[in-house]
């Protein structure tokens, strides 16, 4: 996939581009339906599918006071879009100037003059231009005027409700991993670098843990999870992750700590990916380190069962 990081990198004209537009945060099943339609139409035209997204997220510019944790940081989002078979990803810088672009200019100057869109694929709730005043009716009118077709993709329903980024945030934030998996079409994951922790793992409770400085903004609810960990070589390992403040030791800051069940190397300073498979229990305060150690042993035993079943499903 070709990645264009800004309109200034749009130096060539792509053949019969079929453009789909959105923030695509999470690249969930609704977004995937847009990419599938764009690929289908590009194939029919012998053209290129092009996904236009925005960086930063428009909410960061339009409503900066709102704490909106991103589901997928930009680089992960681009990787997921590429996995959907899109030919070109265009990351448009969203700033005050772009936000002031009128709906007419969004079509005339961007879609037509710059991209030369042959067709446009958007979602049923799509709006565009200054204050979101451009709607589907205007887009279709503009399409008729300029000669590009507009395809509107309806909502993707899961359990009778439309899939949305807001819904994904709610499910992940509540620790509802199975529900989030149904919306995303994959397990939720976070990534980060292994850094120094409190040094209690192996010394105090008998289980070495990797303390992760997370690069993602959206964390599952505090608690203990069965996870798969992808190391810096791309190999998967079974693990148990705790998200929380370690109430037994009264830590002040939230931490993400992972104990790998089948790894004996040194991960310090390395980038790893934590893939959440199942919520095991909430975070608890124990009377002693020994009680915590006994509970961790139970968590590990249960995680082995959960992860063995998950890996069996993957190989089936």
TrEMBL record:
Alphabetically ordered keywords of this record: ATP-binding, FAD, Flavoprotein, FMN, Kinase, Multifunctional enzyme, Nucleotide-binding, Nucleotidyltransferase, Transferase
- The record's EC number reads 2.7.1.26, 2.7.7.2
Q: What class of enzyme is it?
A: transferase
Where in this chain does the record put each Riboflavin kinase domain?
183-308
Q: What does this protein do?
A: Catalyzes the phosphorylation of riboflavin to FMN followed by the adenylation of FMN to FAD.
Please give the family membership noted in the entry.
Belongs to the ribF family.
Q: Which GO terms describe its molecular function?
A: ATP binding; FMN adenylyltransferase activity; riboflavin kinase activity
Q: Write down what this protein is called.
A: Riboflavin biosynthesis protein
Q: Which reaction does it catalyse?
A: FMN + ATP + H(+) = FAD + diphosphate; riboflavin + ATP = FMN + ADP + H(+)
What Pfam families has UniProt attached to this entry? Answer: FAD_syn, Flavokinase
User: What InterPro entries has UniProt attached to this entry?
Assistant: FAD_synthase, Riboflavin_kinase, Riboflavin_kinase_bac, Riboflavin_kinase_bac/euk, Riboflavin_kinase_dom_sf, Rossmann-like_a/b/a_fold
Which pathway, metabolic or otherwise, does it act in?
Cofactor biosynthesis; FMN biosynthesis; FMN from riboflavin (ATP route): step 1/1; Cofactor biosynthesis; FAD biosynthesis; FAD from FMN: step 1/1
For this entry, list what GO says about its biological process.
FAD biosynthetic process; FMN biosynthetic process; riboflavin biosynthetic process
């Amino acid at each position: 996939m070709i990645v264009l990081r800004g309109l200034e990198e749009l130096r060539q004209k792509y053949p019969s581009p079929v453009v789909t537009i959105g923030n695509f945060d999470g690249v969930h099943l609704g977004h995937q339906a847009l990419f599938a339609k764009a690929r289908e139409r590009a194939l029919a035209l012998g053209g290129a599918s092009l996904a236009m997204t925005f960086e930063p997220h428009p909410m960061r510019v339009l409503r900066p006071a709102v704490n909106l944790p991103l589901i997928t940081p930009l680089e992960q989002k681009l990787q997921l879009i590429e996995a959907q078979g899109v030919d070109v990803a265009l990351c448009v810088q969203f700033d005050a100037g772009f936000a002031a672009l009128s709906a007419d200019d969004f079509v005339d100057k961007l879609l037509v003059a710059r991209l030369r869109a042959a067709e446009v694929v958007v979602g049923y709730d799509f709006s565009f231009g200054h204050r979101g005043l451009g709607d589907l009716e205007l887009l279709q009118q503009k399409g008729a005027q300029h000669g590009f077709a507009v395809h509107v993709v309806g909502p993707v329903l899961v359990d009778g409700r439309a899939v949305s980024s807001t819904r994904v945030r709610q499910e992940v934030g509540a620790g509802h991993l199975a529900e989030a998996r149904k919306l995303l079409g994959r397990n939720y994951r976070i990534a980060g670098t292994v850094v120094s922790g409190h040094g209690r793992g192996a010394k105090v409770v008998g289980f070495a843990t990797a303390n992760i400085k997370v690069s993602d903004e959206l964390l599952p609810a505090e608690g203990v999870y069965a996870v798969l960990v992808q190391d810096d070589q791309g190999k998967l390992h079974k693990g148990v992750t705790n998200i929380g403040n370690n109430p037994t030791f009264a830590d002040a800051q939230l931490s993400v700590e992972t104990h790998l069940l089948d790894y004996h190397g040194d991960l310090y300073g390395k980038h790893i990916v934590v893939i959440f498979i199942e919520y095991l229990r909430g975070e608890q305060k124990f009377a002693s380190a020994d009680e915590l150690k006994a509970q961790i042993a139970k968590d590990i035993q249960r995680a082995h069962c959960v992860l063995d079943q998950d890996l069996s499903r993957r190989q089936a």
